[in-house]
Design a protein that fits this description.
It holds the Pfam family Phage_portal. The chain has 14 helices and 11 strands. The chain is an alpha+beta fold. Among the domains are: about 215-260, Arylsulfatase, C-terminal domain; about 350-410, no CATH class. Strand 5 and strand 6 form a beta hairpin. The longest helix has 28 residues, at about 300-330.
């Protein structure tokens, strides 16, 4: 059961009144400029290039997918579709909005956008919220999901139908605030905490080794025991002669000079990088080759390379966004009329020219593509007559396979003269 606006306000007031004497639906003070990633989680995002690369890949992929409102496979242009496809709020384009929302989901485990209404209670914008200030809660009497937001002057409560919420897999245990089981996503950064700490310690140890490593380049061996003053004199003479002669050294009798061979970077650091890359890819449900690991992978085309990424990684994320937008930006009557938001993932699966050409050729000859539809996919203008479907004449209807056989037999019969008996 979905609550209407009056019921939402009434329940919200009852919840707030139990905890605060002065509160309300005043959201103006929430949106002062601030760095939403100014936290421990954000610091890891800014200092670990593997996690940064994974989140960048996911957020850019989601933001690059065309998002439109459809009705029976036909794009619909109205106020809500224009808002979501062009400018979800006065400060952002659709690309920036989706990308930032996905970055928050992949960093904090949850991404929130508040629905803002005009005077006619029509959605006019979607404003992003700091995930660290939002907590899902369940109202005791109605069991409706609400979101407790830490505002500047207190806590505010927003009904779930007024909040766009995308998340990673949800917490399955008892949470601190009420009982929000299944409503708050787990942060991938927290899952990777041990991996990140181990990677950081190995890198720090390697850098410390480089900084504190012995800077000598040669071992100078003498056959006799020398006093401290004599050693200093010989060492200074060695340095001066080496510098004055462009690096050329004369080895005298009784003296042995051996260069010191050392590795600048421990090869184990690269093994740690592979482990980190593999674990980050696993947590974000990505193919490891999408993070730069090409060893052991073989793909015959770009289409195959992206197929695994789209099917295994993007489709569940895309489905979550679509259902969230459909449920909270469309009314029940609009959904019953066939309206639905849809991301076009085919943009990532177009393949190379040869593969696309064969795909389009089969589609047109088999009657499930019109030439103008193919031209639209290739961003070419339509042509007159290109809106028709075509079928190959060598194909027979599936419900009458004998008709073509009769026509072929009649066509192949030998011709006879009119007067022959």
């Amino acid at each position: 059961m979905q609550l209407n606006l009056r019921q939402r306000l009434k329940v919200a007031w009852n919840v707030i009144r139990n905890k605060y004497s002065e509160a309300g639906y005043d959201f103006v003070k929430w949106f002062s400029p601030s760095n939403i990633f100014a936290s421990r989680t954000g610091n890891i995002l800014a200092t670990n290039e593997t996690i940064f690369a994974a989140i960048t890949r996911l957020s850019n992929a989601m933001a690059s997918l065309p998002l439109k409102l459809y009705r029976d496979f036909t794009p619909v242009n109205n106020r809500i579709s224009d808002m979501i496809a062009n400018s979800p709020n006065p400060n952002m384009t659709s690309f920036e909005f989706i990308r930032t929302l996905e970055v928050m989901r992949d960093t904090f485990g949850n991404g929130y956008a508040l629905k803002m209404y005009d005077g006619n209670y029509q959605v006019e914008s979607l404003l992003l919220l700091d995930p660290s200030r939002v907590e899902p809660v369940i109202e005791d009497n109605t069991y409706e999901l609400w979101y407790e937001v830490q505002g500047k002057n207190g806590h505010y409560y927003v009904h779930n139908m007024d909040m766009i919420h995308v998340k990673h897999i949800a917490v399955t245990g008892q949470t601190i605030v009420y009982n929000s089981v299944g409503y708050k996503g787990i942060s991938p950064i927290d899952v990777l905490r041990n991996t990140v700490d181990y990677d950081w310690k190995v890198r720090t140890f390697s850098l410390d080794q480089m900084d504190s490593a012995i800077r000598a380049s040669f071992i100078l061996k003498m056959n006799t025991t020398l006093s401290k003053e004599k050693k200093t004199e010989i060492l200074n003479n060695f340095k001066e002669f080496y510098q004055a002669n462009g690096g050329v050294i004369i080895q005298e009798a009784g003296t042995e000079i051996n260069p010191i061979e050392r590795s600048i970077i421990d090869t184990k650091v690269f093994d740690v990088e592979k482990i980190t890359r593999s674990r980050v890819a696993t947590v974000f449900n990505m193919p490891v080759h999408m993070l730069g690991e090409i060893e052991g992978t073989s793909y015959s085309s770009m289409e195959q390379l992206y197929l695994e990424f789209v099917q295994g990684t993007l489709l569940p994320i895309v489905r979550q966004y679509e259902q969230e937008f459909n449920r909270k930006l469309l009314t029940e009557q609009e959904r019953l009329r066939g309206l639905t938001f849809k991301f076009n993932v085919n943009a990532l699966l177009r393949g190379d020219i040869k593969t696309r050409g064969e795909f389009y050729f089969k589609g047109i000859r088999s009657g499930w593509f019109t030439p103008n539809e193919v031209r639209a996919y290739e961003e070419l203008p339509p042509l007159d007559g290109g809106e028709k479907l075509y079928m190959s004449k060598d194909l027979a209807p599936i419900d009458d396979p004998t008709r073509t056989g009769k026509e072929v037999n009649a066509k192949n019969e030998p011709k006879t003269d009119a007067g022959s008996g």
